[in-house]
Amino acid sequence: MGARSGLARYSIVALFALVACVEQARSADVEGEALPARTQQQGADEQLQVTTQPMRVDVGEVSVRTAVLPKNPETDSFFGERADDTLRKALLNGRIQRVEKGRGGRSLGFKLMLDTGEKAYFKADQTFSAANWFGEVASYHLDRMLGIGRVPMVVSRTFPWESLAHAAGTDVRKSEIIVNGSDVRGALVAWVTGPLMPLPHQPGWERWVRVQHWPTSAISPFQRPAVWVKQLATKGMVLSKEERTRRRLLRPEPDREDRAAELSDLVVFDYLTRNQDRWGGENANVLVRGAKGPLVFLDNGASFEPGDQRPSLMEARIHTLQRFRRRTIAAVRAFDIARFRARLATEQLQPVLSEAQVSGLVQRRAHLLEWVAQNEAQFGEAIWAWE
């Protein structure tokens, strides 16, 4: 018994040590977090107090009670604005006219003015994790295939390092940039016009995406991984009894009519892309276009990270979700992996994703649809909350 107790204490200490090591990390523009091991899934599921056993479901079919699949759910623009094809040409063909070092964030990026008149942000290939050019590119294509249209236009490009290096000056992060010969590859993200600001978090958001009661000690999809690790270590007793009571009484009202649906879509999208780095850093990765504006799915550099393709943190987040936007799930059902591969194949840099990363997306899509079917079987039309 003494050895087992000592091992348990050591495991918890190791978890906190892991969090401490990565707590300083930031993705392309936001604070990074710990990536908990999938072996913690059982504890997370127990806290959720809902079953997560997969149901048998043909993910290629539509259930009787689900909306008819859209013939073509894809979109070709960001928020219905400028068409992707014209902007894509400008981003691919434009030469650097002016360059500035990006502000904020853990990773080193560059704000570019191109001779085509376009402004863009170049996220260079670098050794720092959670700043992956391929995550930005693949997330853009998935966003368009699902008809969401909230990820800015992204293209893969290569620039001469000498055209960027002077802007970095003496920044110590220059050593993290991966230079091949004299060039550096990366993701060129179209500039988002208008003010961008973090969406202030309100305890109680979880109730918006749940059919059942949400215990204040349960996993939240809107919390940083470090908090989740602490919940596991303390069996959910992170908050005092008084604070749990206070939060149970909170009934926040959405600041706009579709905010709850947006948050549900964001959890779904991040699950599919395997983006563990959305929440944290004062919601610096959860941005809206102006006060009470719509959510922008910006900063996807942590997406499609190699390794465990269904990490336990992402499983815990998706298993909290019980309400969905019907058209989003219909688009997930209509998703064609061959079409996705074909879109990625149009990129200048190849390969965008490895076979293992594509396979991970297939696995996550299948499980998402199993989870939706399980909730629909249990709660019926209540899961389609915003139509």
Could you characterize the architecture of this molecule?
The structure is a single chain. This protein has 387 residues and is α+β, with helices and mostly antiparallel strands. The protein folds into two domains: 255 residues, no CATH class; 113 residues. Helix content is 37%, strand content 11%. It has a five-stranded antiparallel β-sheet, sandwiched between helices. A hairpin with a 5-residue loop joins strand 7 and strand 8. Helix 2 runs parallel beside helix 9. The chain is globular. The chain starts with a helix and ends in an 8-residue tail after the last helix. The N terminus is likely disordered.
Which regions contain 5 or more consecutive residues with pLDDT less than 50? Answer: 1-69
Span between termini: 55 Å
Radius of gyration: 21 Å
Structural class: alpha+beta
Count of DSSP-assigned helices:
12
Could you give the count of β-strands?
8
Order of secondary-structure elements: HHHEEEHEHEEHHHEEHHHH
Largest sheet: 5 strands, antiparallel
Helix content: 25-40%
- Tell me what portion of residues adopts beta-strand conformation: 5-15%
Number of domains: 2
Mean pLDDT metric:
81
Q: Which sequence of strands runs across the widest sheet?
A: 1-2-3-5-4
- Characterize the overall form: globular
Keywords summarizing the entry:
37% helix; 8 strands; 2 domains; 387 residues; five-stranded antiparallel sheet; alpha+beta; single chain
